[in-house]
Amino acid sequence: MVEVNGLTKIYKLSGKQKKEMNIKDSKKIAVDNVSFTANEGEIFGLLGPNGAGKTTTLRVISTLLKPTAGEVLVEGHDTVKEAELARADICFLTNELKLDPKFTPRYLFRMFGRLHGLSEEVIDARQEELFNIFGIVDFQDKKIEELSTGMKQKASIAVSLVHDPKVVIFDEPTNGLDIITARAVTDYLFELKRKGKVVIVSTHIMSEAQKLCDRIGMIIGGRNVITGTLSEILEATNTTDLEDAFFAVYRTTVTNEDELRELNDLDKQIKLHESADDGEAM
Fold first, then answer.
1. Where are the domains of the chain?
2. Confidence (pTM)
3. Residue 190: left if φ>0, alpha if ψ -120 to 50, beta else—which one?
């Protein structure tokens, strides 16, 4: 189980950063009093636009960042006071973390297995299982830089799962992937759920969240504005699909003209994205 209680993360901004962001405040609240629980055998989704605080939340859960306030418990371990114990139960995958391009999937898998303290026999078994699931066997001795984008992502997933973690955290798991690779990733997330893992994903793709997640927490402006199953969120917002629910919540959350302009731009981007998808489908 992962418990997030009153999580707040505040960044101090330099003069250059304030200028780039066109703000006067020297502090940026990336996550503001966020709370939720992710349970064994479910996929919990963080849904929100870019810059909403999803990735920061996942980085805190994964012990890569320390919270400014609040606490996160991973399998009962505090991610600040017991970071090493919490980290042992976690895999965290994001597109920003890349495998070394000069090494092969086989070398990296075995290296990370040893770093986790696994025996050679366990590494052999995990490699055979995961390389077969993700179709890496024929590419296991090629350098990462020689692989396709989809194969790089599948190799990254396999390496991150080498130690069979109890908690699996994926930040935008299908971002930039072709439809075949994206399906392989989502199918394996369902398999992890079936095995009783805690699975937490972030996404800004409504259809992915609607199909994948047992429960969803919407994050807007660093705040967790609503959490529940799809049916609970639709009932609370009096809507019939997740996209409409998201914008219903967003419109009650935004507080100034800049945010309203951002909302309208986001609405247009989603419609353009959907039109492009329809065109590809045809």
1. 2-89+165-281
2. 0.84
3. alpha
